[in-house]
Amino acid sequence: MYQILEKRALNTDVDWMVIKAPLVAKNAQPGHFVILRVDEVGERIPLTIVEHTDSTITIIYQKLGFSTMKLGELEIGDTIHDLVGPLGRPTHIRDVSSIIAVAGGVGAAPLYPQLRAYKAKGVNIELVLGARDKSHLILLNEYRALCNEVHVCTDDGSFGTKGFVTVLLERILQEKTFDHSIAIGPLIMMKNVVALNDSFELATDVSLNPIMIDGTGMCGNCRVSIHGETYFACVDGPDFPADGINFDELIVRQNYYHDQEHVCSLGLKHK
Ligand code: NAD
Ligand code: FES
Predict the structure, then answer these.
(1) Which end of the chain has a smaller Cβ tally under 10 Å, C or N?
(2) Neighbours of 220 (CB within 10 A)
(3) Residues 97 and 169 in one domain
(4) What is the pLDDT of residue 255?
(5) Residue 265 contacts by C-beta under 8 Å, 6 or more apart in sequence?
């Protein structure tokens, strides 16, 4: 059992939670994630380790479906039934001087440990932070403290520039050059950011979060095609260089899954 030590809402859909998990925390690095179950009949929920101390890990989750809603019902002092990690490969922190990072919605959460690692190396970081509206922007103050510049946009114009992250990114790339880019958010956002960066001959790293079950490379659910080869996000990622990723295949699979009922590890069906 893993006790919840702190919890707060970042907005109506998204919570921030600190969990006591010393063995996981001890080995955590940027890019790692955990898979947790709220109770013994719960679905497995993969979540990035956003921060960690010697004995705790911090997660950020969006209350989208049955299981993340149940996670959101837990309060400080409650326990999570099981939690496995750290999983995945640590992020490859590149030897660069400048980065333009792009975060869309909840994608701002998995980006945070990566940018902290780049900051620790003295890299100049600019960030485009986008959300559907002002209330869905997360970690804005944290990123303002971390990055050299933060450019904010919202789909409805309720905060910062009006439009998708790609609108703002294109303006920035017309004026400045960077050594590398990182983009994390919805698949369609990452696909479009990568295409835009490509047109400026700027390479991009992305973080993929396809459906995961076991997290050990056995079930095949998290497969990703890169240059026609199959990789597994849980053991080969979740962070990948974007070159050659078949985003269209991932988008079709994600849409298929979202149209289906969710089946938990005991075969129970949840909408
Ligand atoms: P959202 O749908 O609100 O979009 C967030 C932002 O992405 C938008 O504000 C916009 O700036 C940008 N965006 C959306 N569609 C775009 C398009 N067609 N072109 C360019 N930019 C576009 O996102 P959300 O609901 O906060 O996030 C949920 C999504 O993020 C889910 O699809 C989830 O799978 C994904 N996600 C990914 C990771 C990861 O590790 N890759 C982690 C968490 C969440
Ligand atoms: Fe099963 Fe990755 S989650 S192979």
Answers:
(1) C
(2) 10
(3) yes
(4) 84
(5) 37, 41, 42, 43, 44
Cβ < 6 A, ligand 2 pocket: 212-215, 217-222, 232, 234
Which tens digits make up the pLDDT trace of 153-195?
999 999 999 999 999 999 999 999 999 999 999 999 999 999 9
Helix ranges restricted to H, 28-130? 66-73, 108-120
The response to whether residue 130 sits with its C-beta less than 6 Å from ligand 1 reads yes
Residues 56 and 71 in one domain: yes
Residues of the chain with pLDDT under 50: 261-271
Q: Domain range spanning residue 259?
A: 208-271
Candidates 35, 218, 231: which one to mutate for ligand 2, based on the most atoms within 8 Å of Cβ?
Answer: 218
Ligand 2 centroid distance, CA of 231 (Å): 10
